[in-house]
Amino acid sequence: MDWRFVEGEKRYIRSFAETLLATHPELAERQIDPPLQHPSWERYEPEHEQMVRTGAVSADITLETSIGMSDEAFAAALAAAKQQGRSTVHVRVWLPLPAACPAQSNITLDSITEPPTHIAPEDAAQRTAYWEADLAENRRFGAVYSYRTTARYADPLHMQADPVQPDFDTQEELPHLEFTPYLRALAAQSWQPTISRRTTRPLCHWAGMPARRHSTMKVEAMMPQSPRRLWAQPSVMFSCTK
Prior knowledge:
Strand order of the largest sheet: 6-7-4-9
Number of strands: 9
Order of helices and strands: EEHHHEHEEEEEHHE
Distance between the termini: 50 Å
Shape: extended
Structural class: alpha+beta
Mean pLDDT: 76
Number of helices: 6
């Protein structure tokens, strides 16, 4: 089991036992009282089989999201504005939107709370809807949008690796970044002048999935049988001029 030091304490990922039992049959056989698997594990094999057969798996997703100041924060901002002789709070709001890319398509903006000042084009590097307004009363800015997400099948055991590999951001930076003993041993076992199936397989195991399941993704929305409707709160940006 791998671990991380957090504030001087050894921490393990919460799902480490579930992952170990799902990826190491020899460990699963040693269970005295097998625990119940998370329902999402039941979808892994069918999704993996579909990805191998068709080359990809897709899901239609709809999200409703909004952003706004808390009533307490707005009251404080409005009080500060009135002290400066203004009766409103000037706000600038950025709400992330899906951008067109190989993994995202069929993007639609289904509804919006009020017309934005600007909406970035679909091919923007970081796409957002932007509002700028003077508020005498607090209100939220939001949207409902839909898109299709697609995960394509890729087999790392048959990929041709670039002969020139990066050498940055791959080393320890003591005392902040230190490799665990397990990772040190794994690196010594796996390192070769060229990348091959033999050298990548231990790394696939370390990542939590054996090579035979490398393409399976634990994504709650990845349901190829029928579209799903999800409601989520993505990251948002908000600025206020008092």
